[in-house]
Amino acid sequence: MQDFVKKYKSYFIILGLIVLVTGAFVPRNLDIKPLSKVFKGYFQGKVPVQHDIVEYQGASREVADYIESEDRTILWTNALFCGMPAQVISNPTKPILIRHLLFPTTPGVWSKIFLYVFCAFIMLLSFKVRPWLALVGAIGIGFATENFTIIAVGHNTKSIATAYLPLIIAGVQYLFRKKHLLGLTILSVGLGLQVYINHVQITYYAGFMVVLFFVFQLVNSIKKNAIKDFIVASSLALLGVVLALGANSLNILMLNEYAKESIRGASALTISKDNVAVSEDGQSGLTEDYVFSYSNGWSDIIATFIPNYSGGDSDKLGLYYGEIGSTSGPKYMGATIFVL
Questions:
Q1: CA dihedral of 299, 312, 137, 50, whole degrees rounded to 10
Q2: Closest Cα partner for 121 from 103, 136, 99?
Q3: What is the pLDDT of residues 225-260, one digit of tens each?
Q4: What's the pLDDT score for residue 49?
Q5: 77: which DSSP letter?
Q6: CA-CA distance, 241 to 237, in Å (whole number)?
Q7: Half-sphere exposure for 229 (CA within 13 Å, toward CB)
Q8: I need a surface site. Which of 87, 94, 257, 330 has the fewest CB within 10 A?
Q9: CA-to-CA distance for 5 and 184, rounded, in angstroms?
Q10: CB atoms within 10 A of CB 163
Q11: Contact 330, 303 (CB under 8 A)
Q12: How many CA atoms lie within 13 A of 333 on its CB side?
């Protein structure tokens, strides 16, 4: 036991520092009295008025009231449009155990900041970054300005899915470092939690990142004549994906059924498999303008590392002059991190 504590002493200290650093931003919201005494804080118990969350609370009210009164879930709600499946608005299933272990019932803002930093720390460790340097890097990643912007506007699922993304990368990296059990565990848990959060956009982006990572590893394996190791790591990664998707199969299957009836579920391809135009204008899915209405332009990309390059908060008249039609502000990540 003493050997274990001695071996991992620095990690326990770092974990405590992560709790303190992230908790310092919202101490009055935490039910941890020592933190409230040490950090007076700027928020003083206040919580952000998140526009999207206010809308969500209204849309999910019927579902919440039904569950509270009947003590059972409901799969349909009339609170939005002409009625729609309830799981698209509010997940009516009981939370899985692993979610409570890694995303406990804590004040929303603090738990998201903690996940940002903690998951980034795990990722940096997977790339053999020394623990204390990994802590500095994790704080830099976790406290990127954009991470707080999406919390402020109420993109809670996006923020949590983004926080879990480093776990996916860490799991894959550990697999290629031949730490197979550790890598498989982190990958399956990280991806499983991200899919459970149900922000498909971030999972989609994570897929691109992992594919590029695999291409790099394939080229590297060919150069080192280590194709066998690549196949083993890839097979275990596939197993991790299957486990993650299998754990969320109920939600995935229900969402797939609903997507066929949604305007966002149609194909954007102009020609069908029978070489027949899908529609008169050659398109049955969403228009290009609709799909990319919140996508960055070139000036917005530069604004990720140059503050105010495309202006500021769009809620203030005239401050934002980038290429996004409507946004809470440029997706600034932090110039210091790019320089370092």
A1: -120
A2: 136
A3: 999 999 999 999 999 999 999 988 888 887 787 777
A4: 67
A5: E
A6: 6
A7: 18
A8: 94
A9: 25
A10: 28
A11: yes
A12: 11
CA dist 118 and 127 (Å) reads 15
Rounded Cα distance, 149 and 263, in Å: 28
Query: Which residue's entry shows tokens 């609709």?
Result: 290
* Residue with tokens 């922000």, as numbered in its chain: 199
DSSP state letter for 278: S
pLDDT of residue 211: 95
**169 within 8 A of 149, measured Cβ to Cβ:** no
Give the length of the chain: 340
Q: Can you tell me whether residue 109 is helix, strand or coil?
A: helix
**Model confidence pLDDT, tens digit, residues 173-206:** 999 999 999 999 999 999 999 998 888 889 999 9
Report the C-alpha gap between 243 and 172 in whole angstroms: 14
CA atoms of 221 and 230, how far apart (whole Å): 6
Say how far apart CA 239 and CA 180 lie, in whole Å.
11
Token output for 214? 């695999």
Are the CB atoms for 236 and 183 separated by under 8 Å?
yes
Task: Give the E-state strand segments of 84-130 in sequence order.
Answer: 84-85
Q: Could you tell me if 28 and 43 are in contact, meaning their C-beta atoms sit under 8 angstroms apart?
A: yes
Residue with tokens 């730490």: 179
Residue 58, Cα to own-chain centre: how many angstroms? 23
Bridge partner residues of 237 (DSSP): none
CB of 267 within 8 A of CB of 276?
A: no
CA angle, corner 47, sides to 43 and 52, nearest 5?
Answer: 140
Beta-carbon contacts of 168 under 8 Å, excluding residues fewer than 6 positions away, are 187, 190, 191, 194, 206, 210
Specify whether the CB–CB gap between 209 and 258 falls below 8 A: no
Output DSSP code: residue 306.
Answer: S
